Protein backbone atom coordinates (compact mmCIF):
# COMPACT_ATOMS: atom_id res chain seq x y z
CA UNK A 1 0.00 0.00 0.00
CA UNK A 2 2.64 2.46 1.04
CA UNK A 3 3.62 4.18 -2.13
CA UNK A 4 5.07 7.54 -1.57
CA UNK A 5 3.34 9.21 -4.44
CA UNK A 6 2.24 12.79 -4.65
CA UNK A 7 1.80 14.96 -1.65
CA UNK A 8 -1.84 16.00 -1.34
CA UNK A 9 -1.84 17.95 1.89
CA UNK A 10 1.11 19.47 3.68
CA UNK A 11 0.84 21.05 7.10
CA UNK A 12 3.52 23.45 8.30
CA UNK A 13 3.74 24.81 11.80
CA UNK A 14 0.00 24.56 12.33
CA UNK A 15 -1.20 26.10 15.59
CA UNK A 16 -4.59 26.71 17.10
CA UNK A 17 -4.75 28.54 20.38
CA UNK A 18 -8.08 29.21 22.03
CA UNK A 19 -8.22 32.19 24.33
CA UNK A 20 -10.05 31.75 27.57
CA UNK A 21 -11.58 35.03 28.56
CA UNK A 22 -10.99 35.94 32.16
CA UNK A 23 -13.98 36.91 34.30
CA UNK A 24 -15.37 40.19 32.98
CA UNK A 25 -14.03 43.16 34.88
CA UNK A 26 -11.23 41.53 36.77
CA UNK A 27 -7.87 41.83 35.14
CA UNK A 28 -6.70 38.29 34.99
CA UNK A 29 -3.80 37.08 32.95
CA UNK A 30 -5.26 35.77 29.74
CA UNK A 31 -5.16 32.03 29.50
CA UNK A 32 -4.57 30.21 26.28
CA UNK A 33 -5.47 26.65 25.44
CA UNK A 34 -2.92 25.32 23.03
CA UNK A 35 -5.21 22.78 21.40
CA UNK A 36 -2.93 22.27 18.43
CA UNK A 37 0.65 23.36 18.76
CA UNK A 38 3.08 23.30 15.90
CA UNK A 39 2.12 20.37 13.71
CA UNK A 40 4.14 19.42 10.65
CA UNK A 41 3.23 16.52 8.43
CA UNK A 42 2.13 15.53 4.96
CA UNK A 43 -0.66 13.39 3.64
CA UNK A 44 0.02 11.54 0.40
CA UNK A 45 -2.43 10.94 -2.34
CA UNK A 46 -4.45 7.76 -1.99
CA UNK A 47 -3.27 6.86 1.49
CA UNK A 48 -5.03 6.73 4.81
CA UNK A 49 -3.29 8.62 7.54
CA UNK A 50 -4.58 7.62 10.95
CA UNK A 51 -4.35 10.02 13.87
CA UNK A 52 -4.65 8.67 17.39
CA UNK A 53 -4.48 10.24 20.80
CA UNK A 54 -6.37 10.61 24.04
CA UNK A 55 -9.46 12.76 24.36
CA UNK A 56 -8.52 16.41 24.34
CA UNK A 57 -5.22 15.98 22.55
CA UNK A 58 -6.35 18.14 19.65
CA UNK A 59 -7.15 15.48 17.06
CA UNK A 60 -10.56 16.82 16.13
CA UNK A 61 -9.38 20.41 16.26
CA UNK A 62 -6.67 19.51 13.81
CA UNK A 63 -9.17 17.83 11.47
CA UNK A 64 -11.32 20.94 11.48
CA UNK A 65 -8.30 23.15 10.89
CA UNK A 66 -7.34 21.16 7.82
CA UNK A 67 -10.75 21.87 6.32
CA UNK A 68 -10.65 25.45 7.56
CA UNK A 69 -13.78 24.98 9.60
CA UNK A 70 -11.66 26.64 12.25
CA UNK A 71 -9.20 29.39 11.50
CA UNK A 72 -5.64 28.46 12.44
CA UNK A 73 -3.78 30.79 14.78
CA UNK A 74 -0.57 30.25 12.90
CA UNK A 75 0.85 28.04 10.21
CA UNK A 76 0.06 26.98 6.68
CA UNK A 77 -1.96 24.23 5.10
CA UNK A 78 -1.11 23.35 1.54
CA UNK A 79 -3.68 21.49 -0.48
CA UNK A 80 -2.16 20.42 -3.77
CA UNK A 81 0.61 22.94 -3.12
CA UNK A 82 -1.74 25.87 -2.69
CA UNK A 83 -1.94 27.44 0.73
CA UNK A 84 -5.62 27.32 1.70
CA UNK A 85 -5.06 29.50 4.75
CA UNK A 86 -4.71 32.45 2.41
CA UNK A 87 -7.86 31.69 0.43
CA UNK A 88 -10.68 34.21 0.34
CA UNK A 89 -14.18 33.10 1.28
CA UNK A 90 -15.10 32.71 -2.35
CA UNK A 91 -12.04 30.67 -3.26
CA UNK A 92 -12.54 28.53 -0.21
CA UNK A 93 -16.15 27.85 -1.14
CA UNK A 94 -15.06 26.64 -4.55
CA UNK A 95 -12.33 24.50 -3.04
CA UNK A 96 -14.58 22.91 -0.45
CA UNK A 97 -15.94 20.45 -2.96
CA UNK A 98 -12.54 18.78 -2.96
CA UNK A 99 -12.27 18.16 0.75
CA UNK A 100 -15.09 16.81 2.85
CA UNK A 101 -15.68 15.57 6.34
CA UNK A 102 -17.31 12.56 7.95
CA UNK A 103 -18.48 13.33 11.45
CA UNK A 104 -18.30 11.41 14.64
CA UNK A 105 -21.90 11.43 15.75
CA UNK A 106 -24.27 10.25 13.04
CA UNK A 107 -27.19 11.21 15.26
CA UNK A 108 -26.26 14.88 15.24
CA UNK A 109 -24.67 15.35 11.86
CA UNK A 110 -27.83 14.86 9.80
CA UNK A 111 -30.51 17.53 9.78
CA UNK A 112 -33.56 15.85 11.39
CA UNK A 113 -35.96 17.70 9.13
CA UNK A 114 -34.48 16.68 5.83
CA UNK A 115 -35.06 13.42 4.03
CA UNK A 116 -32.15 11.20 3.08
CA UNK A 117 -32.45 12.37 -0.51
CA UNK A 118 -32.34 16.01 0.51
CA UNK A 119 -29.36 15.42 2.77
CA UNK A 120 -27.27 13.70 0.12
CA UNK A 121 -28.41 16.16 -2.50
CA UNK A 122 -27.40 19.20 -0.53
CA UNK A 123 -23.73 19.39 -1.58
CA UNK A 124 -24.84 18.90 -5.19
CA UNK A 125 -27.36 21.70 -4.89
CA UNK A 126 -24.70 23.92 -3.39
CA UNK A 127 -22.58 23.51 -6.48
CA UNK A 128 -25.57 23.94 -8.77
CA UNK A 129 -25.88 20.54 -10.31
CA UNK A 130 -28.97 19.96 -12.45
CA UNK A 131 -31.99 18.22 -10.94
CA UNK A 132 -31.74 15.14 -13.18
CA UNK A 133 -28.02 14.78 -12.48
CA UNK A 134 -28.66 15.06 -8.77
CA UNK A 135 -31.26 12.30 -8.68
CA UNK A 136 -28.98 10.01 -10.61
CA UNK A 137 -26.07 10.80 -8.30
CA UNK A 138 -28.17 10.20 -5.16
CA UNK A 139 -29.12 6.83 -6.54
CA UNK A 140 -25.50 5.90 -7.25
CA UNK A 141 -24.37 7.05 -3.82
CA UNK A 142 -27.11 5.21 -1.93
CA UNK A 143 -26.17 2.15 -3.89
CA UNK A 144 -22.50 2.62 -3.07
CA UNK A 145 -23.10 2.79 0.69
CA UNK A 146 -25.68 0.01 0.69
CA UNK A 147 -28.85 1.87 1.59
CA UNK A 148 -31.87 0.72 -0.44
CA UNK A 149 -32.99 3.43 -2.80
CA UNK A 150 -36.58 3.05 -1.65
CA UNK A 151 -35.55 4.60 1.70
CA UNK A 152 -34.60 7.91 0.15
CA UNK A 153 -37.69 9.76 1.32
CA UNK A 154 -37.28 8.74 4.93
CA UNK A 155 -36.00 10.93 7.73
CA UNK A 156 -32.76 10.30 9.66
CA UNK A 157 -34.53 9.24 12.85
CA UNK A 158 -35.93 6.23 11.04
CA UNK A 159 -32.47 4.74 10.61
CA UNK A 160 -30.06 2.96 12.92
CA UNK A 161 -26.71 4.49 13.85
CA UNK A 162 -24.80 2.47 11.28
CA UNK A 163 -27.22 3.38 8.53
CA UNK A 164 -27.06 7.03 9.46
CA UNK A 165 -23.29 6.95 9.26
CA UNK A 166 -23.60 5.41 5.81
CA UNK A 167 -25.83 8.31 4.83
CA UNK A 168 -23.23 10.72 6.20
CA UNK A 169 -20.57 8.94 4.16
CA UNK A 170 -22.71 9.11 1.03
CA UNK A 171 -23.11 12.85 1.57
CA UNK A 172 -19.38 13.38 1.92
CA UNK A 173 -18.78 11.47 -1.32
CA UNK A 174 -21.37 13.37 -3.32
CA UNK A 175 -18.92 15.80 -4.85
CA UNK A 176 -16.18 13.27 -5.58
CA UNK A 177 -13.75 14.82 -3.11
CA UNK A 178 -10.03 14.15 -3.16
CA UNK A 179 -9.54 14.35 0.58
CA UNK A 180 -11.83 13.22 3.38
CA UNK A 181 -11.32 13.95 7.04
CA UNK A 182 -13.08 11.26 9.06
CA UNK A 183 -13.46 12.42 12.64
CA UNK A 184 -13.93 9.28 14.73
CA UNK A 185 -16.49 7.96 12.26
CA UNK A 186 -17.16 4.74 14.14
CA UNK A 187 -16.69 5.84 17.75
CA UNK A 188 -20.43 6.34 18.26
CA UNK A 189 -21.39 2.99 16.76
CA UNK A 190 -21.83 -0.48 18.21
CA UNK A 191 -18.77 -2.65 17.90
CA UNK A 192 -20.63 -5.04 15.61
CA UNK A 193 -21.45 -2.19 13.26
CA UNK A 194 -17.98 -0.61 13.39
CA UNK A 195 -16.40 -3.30 11.22
CA UNK A 196 -19.12 -2.94 8.60
CA UNK A 197 -18.66 0.79 8.35
CA UNK A 198 -14.86 0.52 8.30
CA UNK A 199 -14.99 -2.04 5.50
CA UNK A 200 -17.36 0.17 3.60
CA UNK A 201 -14.98 3.10 3.97
CA UNK A 202 -12.10 0.97 2.73
CA UNK A 203 -14.03 -0.36 -0.23
CA UNK A 204 -15.13 3.13 -1.19
CA UNK A 205 -11.55 4.30 -1.06
CA UNK A 206 -10.48 1.51 -3.39
CA UNK A 207 -13.33 2.38 -5.72
CA UNK A 208 -13.01 6.15 -5.81
CA UNK A 209 -9.36 6.61 -4.87
CA UNK A 210 -9.61 9.44 -2.38
CA UNK A 211 -7.37 10.13 0.57
CA UNK A 212 -8.41 9.77 4.21
CA UNK A 213 -7.28 11.48 7.31
CA UNK A 214 -8.74 9.11 9.84
CA UNK A 215 -9.06 10.39 13.39
CA UNK A 216 -9.74 7.92 16.19
CA UNK A 217 -8.86 7.03 19.73
CA UNK A 218 -9.22 3.32 19.15
CA UNK A 219 -5.87 1.87 18.11
CA UNK A 220 -7.16 -1.34 16.62
CA UNK A 221 -9.58 0.60 14.44
CA UNK A 222 -6.84 2.90 13.25
CA UNK A 223 -4.44 0.06 12.59
CA UNK A 224 -7.04 -1.72 10.52
CA UNK A 225 -7.66 1.14 8.14
CA UNK A 226 -4.47 3.21 8.06
CA UNK A 227 -1.36 3.09 5.95
CA UNK A 228 0.45 5.46 8.25
CA UNK A 229 -0.33 6.50 11.78
CA UNK A 230 0.41 9.66 13.68
CA UNK A 231 0.22 9.75 17.46
CA UNK A 232 -0.74 12.98 19.15
CA UNK A 233 -0.27 14.07 22.72
CA UNK A 234 -1.47 17.44 24.06
CA UNK A 235 -1.59 19.21 20.73
CA UNK A 236 1.67 17.83 19.41
CA UNK A 237 2.59 14.94 17.19
CA UNK A 238 4.91 12.57 19.09
CA UNK A 239 5.39 9.80 16.56
CA UNK A 240 4.55 9.19 12.92
CA UNK A 241 5.28 6.03 10.97
CA UNK A 242 3.89 3.38 8.67
CA UNK A 243 1.32 1.46 10.64
CA UNK A 244 3.29 -1.78 10.63
CA UNK A 245 6.40 -0.04 11.87
CA UNK A 246 4.51 1.82 14.51
CA UNK A 247 2.87 -1.31 15.81
CA UNK A 248 5.92 -3.53 15.73
CA UNK A 249 8.52 -1.06 16.71
CA UNK A 250 7.10 1.93 18.55
CA UNK A 251 9.90 4.18 19.75
CA UNK A 252 8.15 6.92 21.69
CA UNK A 253 7.32 5.92 25.27
CA UNK A 254 3.81 7.31 24.88
CA UNK A 255 3.14 5.16 21.83
CA UNK A 256 4.54 2.17 23.66
CA UNK A 257 2.19 2.78 26.54
CA UNK A 258 -0.78 3.19 24.24
CA UNK A 259 -0.03 0.01 22.33
CA UNK A 260 0.49 -2.03 25.44
CA UNK A 261 -2.98 -1.01 26.54
CA UNK A 262 -4.63 -2.83 23.66
CA UNK A 263 -6.20 -5.98 25.06
CA UNK A 264 -4.94 -9.13 23.41
CA UNK A 265 -7.46 -11.96 23.15
CA UNK A 266 -4.96 -14.60 24.24
CA UNK A 267 -4.93 -15.61 27.92
CA UNK A 268 -1.63 -17.48 27.66
CA UNK A 269 0.29 -14.51 26.40
CA UNK A 270 1.95 -12.53 29.10
CA UNK A 271 1.91 -8.89 28.47
CA UNK A 272 4.33 -6.31 29.55
CA UNK A 273 2.10 -3.42 30.24
CA UNK A 274 3.65 0.01 30.25
CA UNK A 275 1.59 1.76 32.85
CA UNK A 276 1.15 5.47 32.69
CA UNK A 277 0.77 7.30 35.92
CA UNK A 278 -1.00 10.52 36.56
CA UNK A 279 -3.61 12.42 34.63
CA UNK A 280 -3.50 14.06 31.26
CA UNK A 281 -2.16 17.56 32.08
CA UNK A 282 -4.35 20.52 31.19
CA UNK A 283 -3.60 22.02 27.79
CA UNK A 284 -4.06 25.44 29.40
CA UNK A 285 -0.67 25.24 31.04
CA UNK A 286 1.08 22.40 29.29
CA UNK A 287 4.24 21.09 30.94
CA UNK A 288 7.50 22.66 29.87
CA UNK A 289 10.00 20.88 27.68
CA UNK A 290 8.58 17.60 26.44
CA UNK A 291 4.89 17.70 27.24
CA UNK A 292 4.91 14.05 28.10
CA UNK A 293 7.62 14.24 30.76
CA UNK A 294 5.17 14.34 33.69
CA UNK A 295 3.95 10.85 32.87
CA UNK A 296 6.90 9.40 31.04
CA UNK A 297 8.56 6.34 32.62
CA UNK A 298 11.87 7.28 30.97
CA UNK A 299 11.85 10.99 31.74
CA UNK A 300 15.19 12.66 32.33
CA UNK A 301 16.23 16.15 33.33
CA UNK A 302 16.55 17.38 29.78
CA UNK A 303 12.94 16.42 29.07
CA UNK A 304 11.71 18.98 31.59
CA UNK A 305 13.54 21.84 29.98
CA UNK A 306 14.03 21.35 26.28
CA UNK A 307 11.35 20.58 23.76
CA UNK A 308 12.37 17.49 21.80
CA UNK A 309 13.03 17.80 18.09
CA UNK A 310 11.12 15.96 15.41
CA UNK A 311 13.67 13.45 14.15
CA UNK A 312 13.64 10.70 11.57
CA UNK A 313 14.37 7.52 13.51
CA UNK A 314 14.49 5.36 10.44
CA UNK A 315 13.10 5.86 6.97
CA UNK A 316 9.58 7.31 7.17
CA UNK A 317 9.51 6.90 10.91
CA UNK A 318 9.49 10.11 12.90
CA UNK A 319 9.39 10.76 16.60
CA UNK A 320 9.92 13.57 19.05
CA UNK A 321 11.76 12.27 22.09
CA UNK A 322 15.09 13.01 23.75
CA UNK A 323 15.59 9.44 24.93
CA UNK A 324 15.11 8.06 21.45
CA UNK A 325 17.50 10.60 20.04
CA UNK A 326 20.12 9.68 22.59
CA UNK A 327 19.73 6.00 21.83
CA UNK A 328 20.28 6.69 18.15
CA UNK A 329 23.48 8.60 18.47
CA UNK B 1 -47.79 17.88 3.17
CA UNK B 2 -50.33 15.04 3.05
CA UNK B 3 -48.31 13.43 5.72
CA UNK B 4 -48.42 16.53 7.84
CA UNK B 5 -52.20 16.72 7.53
CA UNK B 6 -52.51 13.08 8.55
CA UNK B 7 -50.55 13.72 11.70
CA UNK B 8 -52.45 16.89 12.44
CA UNK B 9 -55.74 15.03 12.09
CA UNK B 10 -54.83 12.64 14.87
CA UNK B 11 -55.02 15.47 17.36
CA UNK B 12 -58.76 15.96 17.75
CA UNK B 13 -58.57 19.07 19.90
CA UNK B 14 -56.38 20.77 17.34
CA UNK B 15 -58.83 19.89 14.58
CA UNK B 16 -61.67 21.39 16.61
CA UNK B 17 -59.62 24.55 17.03
CA UNK B 18 -58.88 24.61 13.34
CA UNK B 19 -62.55 24.18 12.44
CA UNK B 20 -63.63 27.00 14.77
CA UNK B 21 -61.00 29.29 13.28
CA UNK B 22 -62.20 28.33 9.82
CA UNK B 23 -65.77 29.18 10.83
CA UNK B 24 -64.68 32.55 12.24
CA UNK B 25 -62.73 33.19 9.06
CA UNK B 26 -65.70 32.35 6.85
CA UNK B 27 -68.01 34.48 8.98
CA UNK B 28 -65.62 37.36 8.58
CA UNK B 29 -65.46 36.93 4.82
CA UNK B 30 -69.19 36.44 4.25
CA UNK B 31 -70.34 38.82 6.98
CA UNK B 32 -72.47 40.77 4.54
CA UNK B 33 -74.70 37.79 3.74
CA UNK B 34 -74.84 36.33 7.22
CA UNK B 35 -76.08 39.35 9.10
CA UNK B 36 -79.76 40.16 9.35
CA UNK B 37 -79.10 43.84 10.19
CA UNK B 38 -76.64 46.60 9.44
CA UNK B 39 -74.17 46.59 12.36
CA UNK B 40 -74.03 50.39 12.40
CA UNK B 41 -77.72 51.09 12.21
CA UNK B 42 -79.25 52.38 15.43
CA UNK B 43 -82.80 51.54 16.32
CA UNK B 44 -83.82 53.38 19.51
CA UNK B 45 -87.18 51.65 19.69
CA UNK B 46 -85.57 48.24 20.08
CA UNK B 47 -82.80 49.22 22.47
CA UNK B 48 -81.49 46.66 24.97
CA UNK B 49 -83.72 43.87 23.74
CA UNK B 50 -82.91 40.51 25.28
CA UNK B 51 -82.10 37.69 22.84
CA UNK B 52 -85.20 36.63 20.90
CA UNK B 53 -86.24 35.33 17.51
CA UNK B 54 -85.80 38.70 15.89
CA UNK B 55 -82.49 39.72 17.50
CA UNK B 56 -80.66 36.43 18.17
CA UNK B 57 -78.11 37.89 20.55
CA UNK B 58 -80.24 40.85 21.62
CA UNK B 59 -79.51 44.52 20.99
CA UNK B 60 -77.27 47.10 22.66
CA UNK B 61 -78.06 50.47 24.19
CA UNK B 62 -78.50 52.05 20.78
CA UNK B 63 -80.64 49.23 19.47
CA UNK B 64 -77.89 47.81 17.24
CA UNK B 65 -78.13 44.08 16.58
CA UNK B 66 -75.40 42.35 18.64
CA UNK B 67 -75.25 39.27 16.41
CA UNK B 68 -74.52 41.41 13.35
CA UNK B 69 -71.90 43.37 15.24
CA UNK B 70 -70.17 40.23 16.43
CA UNK B 71 -70.06 38.82 12.92
CA UNK B 72 -68.53 42.03 11.61
CA UNK B 73 -66.27 42.16 14.66
CA UNK B 74 -64.63 38.94 13.52
CA UNK B 75 -63.23 40.92 10.61
CA UNK B 76 -61.51 43.41 12.85
CA UNK B 77 -60.19 40.80 15.23
CA UNK B 78 -58.81 38.53 12.52
CA UNK B 79 -57.35 41.45 10.62
CA UNK B 80 -55.62 42.76 13.71
CA UNK B 81 -54.44 39.28 14.64
CA UNK B 82 -53.09 38.34 11.22
CA UNK B 83 -51.42 41.63 10.39
CA UNK B 84 -50.02 42.43 13.82
CA UNK B 85 -48.72 38.92 14.48
CA UNK B 86 -47.49 38.61 10.90
CA UNK B 87 -45.53 41.80 11.39
CA UNK B 88 -43.98 40.75 14.68
CA UNK B 89 -43.26 37.22 13.45
CA UNK B 90 -41.46 38.36 10.32
CA UNK B 91 -39.56 41.25 11.89
CA UNK B 92 -38.82 39.43 15.16
CA UNK B 93 -37.71 36.19 13.54
CA UNK B 94 -35.40 37.93 11.11
CA UNK B 95 -33.90 39.95 13.96
CA UNK B 96 -33.47 36.85 16.08
CA UNK B 97 -31.95 34.77 13.30
CA UNK B 98 -29.44 37.46 12.47
CA UNK B 99 -28.59 38.10 16.11
CA UNK B 100 -28.19 34.42 16.93
CA UNK B 101 -26.24 33.45 13.86
CA UNK B 102 -23.87 36.37 13.56
CA UNK B 103 -23.17 36.93 17.26
CA UNK B 104 -20.76 39.67 18.32
CA UNK B 105 -21.82 43.30 18.31
CA UNK B 106 -24.77 42.66 15.97
CA UNK B 107 -26.19 40.26 18.52
CA UNK B 108 -25.51 42.72 21.31
CA UNK B 109 -27.24 45.57 19.49
CA UNK B 110 -30.34 43.56 18.61
CA UNK B 111 -30.56 41.96 22.03
CA UNK B 112 -30.35 45.33 23.80
CA UNK B 113 -33.13 46.72 21.59
CA UNK B 114 -35.37 43.80 22.48
CA UNK B 115 -34.45 44.21 26.15
CA UNK B 116 -35.60 47.82 26.06
CA UNK B 117 -38.88 46.87 24.40
CA UNK B 118 -39.29 44.04 26.85
CA UNK B 119 -38.88 46.25 29.88
CA UNK B 120 -42.27 47.88 29.31
CA UNK B 121 -45.49 46.07 30.13
CA UNK B 122 -47.22 45.01 26.90
CA UNK B 123 -50.30 47.16 27.13
CA UNK B 124 -48.39 50.17 28.39
CA UNK B 125 -46.01 49.99 25.45
CA UNK B 126 -48.91 49.65 23.03
CA UNK B 127 -50.58 52.63 24.72
CA UNK B 128 -47.47 54.76 24.32
CA UNK B 129 -47.10 53.83 20.67
CA UNK B 130 -50.77 54.53 20.06
CA UNK B 131 -50.47 57.86 21.84
CA UNK B 132 -47.59 58.81 19.56
CA UNK B 133 -49.13 57.54 16.35
CA UNK B 134 -52.73 58.50 16.99
CA UNK B 135 -55.61 56.06 17.04
CA UNK B 136 -56.57 54.29 13.87
CA UNK B 137 -56.88 50.67 12.88
CA UNK B 138 -53.53 50.66 11.05
CA UNK B 139 -51.70 52.21 13.95
CA UNK B 140 -53.36 49.77 16.31
CA UNK B 141 -52.04 46.85 14.31
CA UNK B 142 -48.59 48.40 14.10
CA UNK B 143 -48.53 49.05 17.84
CA UNK B 144 -49.53 45.50 18.72
CA UNK B 145 -47.05 44.24 16.15
CA UNK B 146 -44.17 46.20 17.69
CA UNK B 147 -45.08 45.01 21.17
CA UNK B 148 -44.69 41.36 20.15
CA UNK B 149 -41.52 41.73 18.09
CA UNK B 150 -39.10 41.12 21.01
CA UNK B 151 -40.78 37.84 21.97
CA UNK B 152 -40.20 36.44 18.50
CA UNK B 153 -36.71 37.88 18.34
CA UNK B 154 -35.77 36.23 21.61
CA UNK B 155 -37.27 32.88 20.85
CA UNK B 156 -35.63 32.84 17.42
CA UNK B 157 -32.27 33.92 18.82
CA UNK B 158 -32.32 31.33 21.58
CA UNK B 159 -33.23 28.54 19.22
CA UNK B 160 -30.59 29.58 16.72
CA UNK B 161 -27.92 29.61 19.43
CA UNK B 162 -29.00 26.13 20.32
CA UNK B 163 -28.97 24.87 16.74
CA UNK B 164 -26.01 26.66 15.21
CA UNK B 165 -23.39 24.57 17.00
CA UNK B 166 -24.95 21.29 15.98
CA UNK B 167 -22.96 19.00 13.77
CA UNK B 168 -25.32 19.21 10.83
CA UNK B 169 -24.72 22.94 10.63
CA UNK B 170 -21.00 22.30 10.69
CA UNK B 171 -21.52 19.64 8.03
CA UNK B 172 -23.33 22.16 5.87
CA UNK B 173 -20.53 24.67 6.39
CA UNK B 174 -17.94 22.07 5.48
CA UNK B 175 -19.76 21.53 2.20
CA UNK B 176 -19.55 25.20 1.36
CA UNK B 177 -23.22 26.05 1.86
CA UNK B 178 -23.71 29.83 2.10
CA UNK B 179 -24.64 31.28 5.50
CA UNK B 180 -27.94 32.61 4.20
CA UNK B 181 -28.84 29.17 2.86
CA UNK B 182 -27.84 27.60 6.15
CA UNK B 183 -30.15 29.99 7.97
CA UNK B 184 -33.01 29.36 5.60
CA UNK B 185 -32.67 25.63 4.94
CA UNK B 186 -31.23 24.28 8.17
CA UNK B 187 -31.80 26.66 11.02
CA UNK B 188 -35.23 28.13 10.31
CA UNK B 189 -37.06 24.79 9.84
CA UNK B 190 -35.54 23.48 13.05
CA UNK B 191 -36.40 26.67 14.89
CA UNK B 192 -40.00 26.81 13.65
CA UNK B 193 -41.70 24.71 16.32
CA UNK B 194 -41.43 27.21 19.20
CA UNK B 195 -42.13 30.07 16.79
CA UNK B 196 -45.35 28.51 15.56
CA UNK B 197 -46.54 27.98 19.09
CA UNK B 198 -45.67 31.59 19.77
CA UNK B 199 -47.58 32.71 16.68
CA UNK B 200 -50.77 31.09 17.88
CA UNK B 201 -50.30 32.38 21.40
CA UNK B 202 -49.56 35.88 20.15
CA UNK B 203 -52.54 35.69 17.85
CA UNK B 204 -54.69 35.10 20.87
CA UNK B 205 -52.95 37.91 22.74
CA UNK B 206 -53.30 40.27 19.79
CA UNK B 207 -57.04 39.74 19.73
CA UNK B 208 -57.10 40.44 23.47
CA UNK B 209 -54.87 43.47 23.08
CA UNK B 210 -57.12 44.88 20.39
CA UNK B 211 -60.06 44.32 22.70
CA UNK B 212 -58.23 45.90 25.62
CA UNK B 213 -57.04 48.94 23.70
CA UNK B 214 -60.45 49.44 22.19
CA UNK B 215 -61.94 49.01 25.64
CA UNK B 216 -59.68 51.82 26.81
CA UNK B 217 -60.79 53.94 23.89
CA UNK B 218 -57.47 53.86 22.04
CA UNK B 219 -58.32 51.48 19.31
CA UNK B 220 -60.58 51.89 16.36
CA UNK B 221 -63.30 54.54 16.33
CA UNK B 222 -66.08 53.83 18.84
CA UNK B 223 -68.85 53.01 16.38
CA UNK B 224 -66.78 50.29 14.71
CA UNK B 225 -68.05 46.80 15.50
CA UNK B 226 -65.06 45.44 17.39
CA UNK B 227 -65.36 42.86 20.14
CA UNK B 228 -63.31 45.00 22.46
CA UNK B 229 -65.40 48.09 21.92
CA UNK B 230 -68.58 46.13 22.38
CA UNK B 231 -67.31 44.81 25.67
CA UNK B 232 -66.21 48.27 26.69
CA UNK B 233 -69.61 49.74 26.01
CA UNK B 234 -71.38 46.83 27.63
CA UNK B 235 -69.70 47.43 30.98
CA UNK B 236 -72.27 50.15 31.77
CA UNK B 237 -75.23 47.95 30.96
CA UNK B 238 -74.30 44.43 31.79
CA UNK B 239 -75.91 44.40 35.20
CA UNK B 240 -79.26 44.88 33.56
CA UNK B 241 -78.59 43.38 30.15
CA UNK B 242 -76.12 40.49 30.46
CA UNK B 243 -76.24 39.69 26.74
CA UNK B 244 -74.44 42.88 25.80
CA UNK B 245 -71.27 41.61 27.51
CA UNK B 246 -71.62 37.84 27.34
CA UNK B 247 -71.67 37.44 23.56
CA UNK B 248 -68.62 39.51 22.66
CA UNK B 249 -66.90 37.83 25.62
CA UNK B 250 -67.70 34.38 24.28
CA UNK B 251 -66.49 35.42 20.82
CA UNK B 252 -63.12 36.54 22.20
CA UNK B 253 -62.73 33.47 24.38
CA UNK B 254 -63.61 31.11 21.57
CA UNK B 255 -61.17 32.71 19.13
CA UNK B 256 -58.32 32.80 21.64
CA UNK B 257 -58.98 29.24 22.78
CA UNK B 258 -59.10 27.87 19.23
CA UNK B 259 -55.81 29.46 18.29
CA UNK B 260 -54.15 28.02 21.36
CA UNK B 261 -55.22 24.43 20.82
CA UNK B 262 -54.48 24.62 17.13
CA UNK B 263 -51.01 25.88 17.96
CA UNK B 264 -50.32 22.85 20.11
CA UNK B 265 -51.46 20.55 17.35
CA UNK B 266 -49.37 22.33 14.75
CA UNK B 267 -46.25 22.04 16.84
CA UNK B 268 -46.67 18.30 17.24
CA UNK B 269 -47.52 17.74 13.60
CA UNK B 270 -44.53 19.73 12.39
CA UNK B 271 -42.03 17.60 14.24
CA UNK B 272 -41.09 14.57 12.18
CA UNK B 273 -39.67 12.87 15.23
CA UNK B 274 -43.08 12.61 16.88
CA UNK B 275 -44.50 11.01 13.80
CA UNK B 276 -45.92 7.49 13.72
CA UNK B 277 -46.14 7.35 17.43
CA UNK B 278 -49.88 7.42 17.56
CA UNK B 279 -50.70 5.60 14.34
From TrEMBL, chain A:
Belongs to the ABC transporter superfamily. This is Dipeptide ABC transporter ATP-binding protein. GO terms for biological process: peptide transport; transmembrane transport. Pfam families: ABC_tran, oligo_HPY. GO terms for molecular function: ATP binding; ATP hydrolysis activity. Residues 9-259 form the ABC transporter domain. Keywords: ATP-binding, Nucleotide-binding, Transport. SMART domains: AAA. InterPro entries: AAA+_ATPase, ABC_transp_ATP-bind, ABC_transporter-like_ATP-bd, ABC_transporter-like_CS, Oligopep_ABC_C, P-loop_NTPase.
Automatic annotation (TrEMBL), chain B:
The chain crosses the membrane at residues 12-34, 76-101, 113-133, 139-156, 195-220, 240-263. It comes from the Bacteria. GO terms for biological process: transmembrane transport. Its main location: membrane. It is a multi-pass membrane protein. It is found in: Cell membrane. The keyword Phosphoprotein does not apply. Pfam families: BPD_transp_1 (PF00528), OppC_N (PF12911). One of its GO terms (cellular component) is plasma membrane. Keywords: Cell membrane, Membrane, Transmembrane, Transmembrane helix, Transport. Residues 74-263 form the ABC transmembrane type-1 domain. PANTHER family: D,D-DIPEPTIDE TRANSPORT SYSTEM PERMEASE PROTEIN DDPC-RELATED, OLIGOPEPTIDE TRANSPORT SYSTEM PERMEASE PROTEIN APPC. Belongs to the binding-protein-dependent transport system permease family. This is ABC transporter permease. It comes from Aquibacillus salsiterrae.
